[in-house]
Amino acid sequence: MLPPTRPDQTRFAMKAYLSFLAISLLHVIGEAVIEFDSDADREWYGVLFIAPMLYLVGPMMQILGLAAFRSKLSRSGRGILARPTAP
Which tens digits make up the pLDDT trace of 44-71? Predict the structure, then answer.
């Protein structure tokens, strides 16, 4: 059910979305503001941003997605992936 109907669920969803957006935009804003002396410095800045995104934020998003899928399966009775039975 999207969007969430309860206010606490809506606030949590908005906080999660805005946090992910802020983390993603942080790199772009930093690269626009910071003056780098060489291309190597720019590459290190990129690596220092990409590593936490890949190893921390990415797996958390996958876990949240799987949890949402599991809760959707448990609410739908027979399950979304169940084969339809012949009448």
Answer: 888 888 888 788 878 887 887 787 777 7
